[in-house]
UniProtKB/TrEMBL annotation, chain A:
Stretches assigned to the ABC transmembrane type-2 domain: 151-375
Protein's name according to its UniProt entry: ABC transporter permease
Stretches that traverse the bilayer: 21-39, 188-207, 228-251, 263-288, 300-321, 341-370
One GO CC term, this protein: plasma membrane
Subcellular localization: Cell membrane
Family from the record: Belongs to the ABC-2 integral membrane protein family.
TrEMBL record, chain B:
Official protein name in the record: ABC transporter ATP-binding protein
Keyword line: ATP-binding, Nucleotide-binding, Transport
Gene Ontology MF term list: ATP binding; ATP hydrolysis activity
Signal peptide residue numbers: none
PROSITE patterns registered for this protein in UniProt: ABC_TRANSPORTER_1, ABC_TRANSPORTER_2
Cited SUPFAM superfamilies: P-loop containing nucleoside triphosphate hydrolases
Domain spans labelled ABC transporter: 4-234
Domain of life: Bacteria
InterPro entries assigned to the protein according to its UniProt record, in alphabetical order: AAA+_ATPase, ABC_transporter-like_ATP-bd, ABC_transporter-like_CS, DrrA1/2-like_C, P-loop_NTPase
Length: 382, 311
């Protein structure tokens, strides 16, 4: 243990001797929060821009439904053709588009409404609000249709009464936290990428010491190979956990961004992800023959997978086939758990994501141990 | 008393036998030279002594204890100066020595004292706060040594410690080796430079193709080649020299031409100096001096292995 502490001390001192490493390990996460705040907007006057593609023409039910959406709080509505809607969504001018298919009105009257398609590249945050209200409205009409028992005249009468009815409504203004949640979510996305690179950099010390032959000197001393590798893992985890604590602390206490879930839970999830990052970085170090090769492997692995997992922008912006790849990436399961908890689900509902993250950590650790064991150059590490 | 005893030591990598049944012993207080060409098995043997490689067969005992069974004891009593400079460029000379000495469990004021002492010993006392990137090759080599001696090992293994350095640093290192030895440290020394080994080593072993082919004192080794003599003839120009004709002279075993010196290796019992001179004169080669060389380790090595140490 004394040996391990001595090695930890040395690694920490030489790592934090240079200001570049301070910036890399602790400064970049703070920049990431700033970037997330700037890119994910402010909580005041958050409006959802909705495009309407009406393929059902001047049908009363369709027009009423469109009017209902238009009357929703914080929505801007614009009717336009399908092609134009696609272009505006890609350009980011629209948050979502609703496509009312031809015959929609008729299918509602028959009690079996055809789905209204929702197209969005901004993910559930943009579409969920509209979707929830739209479903409620269509459900009401479906119930009317069922009550009419297939009679169109009865439906028209009941529908007219429904439109004319008065509902007692008391309104209370709640604070809109969606922007804060989006900022926190994005900060975690960026942090997930930075954690991978930080872990990769620290595991790279093993390779650098192999290259400058100092590891042979260490191995020739009474320090065991296990102590040597353990010290690297401990430093790696300590630095990343510090990164997590700093990010969460600054995000909530200085920038006032509310993560949308208890801080302790967020910290736990990120610490679990830290284990994944460290084990993955060790696996990369085990496969690489030099620190240069490890660096190239990290660039090839960490950045593209983070993009695919939705760390930089919502995965809904990608084609469906690419979105499926995200299920195989640990970053996705971190964000999935984080996102679900922000929506207020019970902790039990994110247990599958937690178990998947644990499985990733175990898989990468075993891969690293196996590869180190088979690598003649690094056999003395294990 | 022997500090190190190696008994029928072997190391194989797959089918390749790198070290084959090596046996040798080093007495306390010796400077033991370990000679061999590249790939002869020197470094493999050294790495096994330093517990950096597993032993395939045989036994190594340090102060009577099997190093496999008492690895920590062995590691604490051995210091290794690797052939390649093994230091941290981002740590000062002081931090480097302190870190490596600390690996041996030394702490506190004792650690500080030994670190400064080691740096002083290699002549870097005034450079303790300097980063190695500002050092010359020779200074880095000296720091490489300081990192290996701060824990005061009983056996110091020095693997080619003077490769690629200036004469001043080389002299400093050789003097340090002698001084360390006087202070009671036993030294296992490998080098490509025969003159260094000849100057500082008390006993020498020669390894070739993984096997020890000779060992003993310098005198004992040189006795192996007493049936030979080395005659060096300095000439004005070797342009007309014909090694083929010179080799035909009775008793001559080998002829080497280096710059303006023709080196003959000949049977000691044949008096053939006249014939050598006659042949050179016949080839119109102007002779400047003639010298009979004492046998040296180079000639011993050449005789035993059939090649020069630097081949």
């Amino acid at each position: 243990m004394r040996d391990t502490l001595w090695l930890i001390r040395k690694t920490l001192i030489s790592t934090f001797k240079t200001y570049k490493n301070w910036l890399f390990y602790l400064g970049l996460p703070l920049l990431a929060i700033l970037l997330a705040i700037m890119t994910r907007g402010h909580s005041e006057d958050v409006r959802v821009n909705i495009g309407i593609v009406n393929e059902d023409g001047k049908q009363a039910i369709t027009l009423d439904t469109i009017a209902f959406i238009g009357g929703m709080h914080s929505t801007n509505l614009v009717e336009l053709p399908k092609e134009e809607a696609d272009e505006q969504i890609i350009a980011g001018d629209l948050d979502a588009a609703l496509i009312f298919p031809a015959g929609f009105s008729q299918t509602v009257k028959s009690g079996n409404p055809e789905s209204v398609r929702i197209v969005s590249v901004k993910g559930t945050e943009a579409s969920d609000y509209v979707k929830a209200n739209l479903n409620r409205y269509i459900d009401n009409m479906t119930l009317i249709s069922k009550a009419a028992g297939g009679s169109e005249s009865k439906f028209d009468r009941l529908y007219a009464e429904y439109k004319a009815s008065d509902f007692p409504l008391s309104a209370e203004t709640l604070q809109d936290r969606s922007a804060g949640h989006a900022q926190a979510y994005q900060s975690i996305g960026y942090l997930a990428v930075l954690m991978l690179f930080a872990a990769g950099n620290l595991s790279g010390i093993l390779l650098k010491e192999r290259e400058n032959r100092t590891y042979r000197r260490i191995m020739a001393s009474p320090v065991s190979a296990r102590s040597y590798v353990s010290s690297n893992i401990i430093v790696n985890l300590a630095v990343i956990v510090a990164q997590v604590a700093l990010t969460l602390g600054v995000m909530t206490q200085i920038f006032g961004v509310k993560p949308g879930l208890p801080l302790g839970v967020a910290f736990f999830l990120l610490c679990l992800y830290a284990l994944v990052a460290v084990s993955l970085s060790l696996a990369v170090a085990a496969f690489a023959k030099s620190s240069m090769e490890a660096g190239a492997l990290q660039q090839m692995l960490f950045f593209p997978t983070s993009l695919l997992a939705g760390c930089m922008f919502p995965i809904a912006a990608m084609p469906q086939a690419m979105q499926s790849i995200a299920y195989f990436l640990p970053q996705y399961w971190l964000l999935e758990a984080f996102g679900k908890l922000q929506l207020g689900v019970a902790l039990a509902e994110v247990i599958p994501s937690v178990l998947i993250l644990v499985s990733f950590a175990i898989f990468f650790s075993l891969t690293a141990v196996y590869k180190f064991g088979r690598n003649q150059d690094a056999r003395s590490f294990i | 008393m022997n500090i190190l005893e190696i008994d029928r030591l072997s190391k194989t990598f797959g089918d390749f036998v790198a070290v084959d049944q090596v046996s040798l012993s080093i007495g306390e207080g010796e400077i033991f030279g370990f000679l061999g060409a590249n790939g002869a098995g020197k470094s493999t043997t050294i790495h096994m002594i330093a517990s950096l490689l597993r032993i395939s067969k045989g036994e190594i005992r340090l102060l009577g204890k099997d190093i496999t069974k008492h690895a920590n004891f062995a590691k604490k009593n051995i210091g290794i100066v690797p052939q390649e400079i093994a230091i941290y460029e981002d740590m000062t000379a002081y931090e480097n020595v302190r870190f490596f000495a600390g690996l041996y469990g030394i702490r506190g004021s004792e650690l500080k004292e030994r670190t400064l002492e080691a740096l002083e010993f290699v002549g870097l006392g005034d450079k303790h706060a300097v980063y190695p990137k500002h050092f010359s090759g020779g200074m880095k080599r000296r720091l490489n040594i300081a990192c290996a001696i701060a824990h005061r090992p009983k056996l110091l293994i020095m693997d080619e410690p003077t490769v690629g350095i200036d004469p001043q640093s080389r002299n400093h290192i050789l003097n340090s080796v002698k001084k360390l030895n006087e202070m009671g440290c036993t030294i296992l020394y490998t080098s490509h430079y025969m003159e260094e080994v000849e100057e500082i080593c008390t006993r020498i072993a020669i390894i070739d193709h993984g096997k020890i082919i000779a060992q003993g004192t310098k005198k004992e080794l040189k006795a192996i080649v007493t049936d030979q003599k080395n005659i060096w003839i300095e000439v004005r120009s070797t342009e007309n020299a014909d090694p083929g004709k010179l080799r035909e002279i009775a008793g001559v075993k080998q002829v080497e031409i280096e710059d303006r010196v023709i080196k003959f290796t000949s049977d000691a019992g044949v008096n053939n100096l006249n014939k050598m001179i006659q042949q050179l004169m016949a080839d119109e080669i102007e002779i400047r001096s003639v010298e009979e060389q004492e046998p040296n380790l180079e000639s011993v090595f050449l005789t035993l292995t059939g090649r020069s140490l630097r081949d």
